[in-house]
Design brief:
By secondary structure, this protein is mainly alpha-helical. The chain has a domain at about 20-55 and about 90-180. Helices cover about 60% and strands about 5% of the residues. It contains six helices and three strands; from the N terminus they run ααβββαααα. A hairpin with a 5-residue loop joins β1 and β2 (about 70-75). It starts with a helix and ends with a helix.
């Protein structure tokens, strides 16, 4: 056997276990990346909701508009598209309007409602979960009742949104650190 053949490095193809381990690692990275994207989408929605509430907040109505004669109208039926040009909005209407075209029935709106409800009731933000429509509706109704409480003020609503964003930020930071070590 010639000496030149002995000097060539022998590389074995990656074993099956190595390929499976690499595939699982990449799948984990994909899942974490998707989770981070969902958390970021909820945070962005809550940031827009915060801005809408800071510009004008209302109780005992979904939102208010001003008609052609300059009269303020309190709208009691939520048609989120009608509220896009609203002057003021309640908490849930603001989420619905900012989540258009999906409103609170879409995945990001559902997660935003769930995150605020969980923070309001002392739980984790859970901005990554989708709940069944009935659960989202019940949570939205609970947030409407909380918004319309006689002792509630605009700063309370803004504080809930800020607290929810802060909790989502902590969750996102945790996912980022997990992603960095993946």
């Amino acid at each position: 056997m010639p000496d030149s053949l002995l000097q060539l490095p022998v590389t074995a193809p990656a074993g099956l276990r190595t390929r499976w381990r690499d595939r699982r690692r990449l799948q984990r990275i994909d899942r974490l990346g998707a989770k981070l994207a969902r958390l970021d989408a909820v945070d962005a929605l809550l940031a827009r909701t915060h801005q809408r509430i800071a510009n004008g907040w209302v109780q005992d109505a979904w939102f208010t508009t001003i008609d052609e004669q300059g009269v303020r109208l309190h709208v009691g039926t939520l048609r989120a598209h009608d509220g896009e040009a609203s002057e003021r909005a309640c908490l849930v209407a603001a989420v619905a309007i900012e989540a258009l075209p999906a409103s609170i029935t879409g995945p990001v709106g559902q997660r935003a409602v769930g995150a605020m409800w969980n923070v309001l009731h002392g739980g984790l933000p859970a901005g990554d979960w989708i709940t069944p429509p009935g659960v989202t509706a019940a949570r939205a109704y609970d947030l409407v009742r909380w918004n319309d409480s006689a002792d509630r003020c605009q700063s309370d609503v803004l504080a809930l949104i800020d607290g929810s964003r802060s909790a989502l930020g902590r969750s996102a930071d945790s996912v980022r650190s997990e992603l960095a070590s993946a």
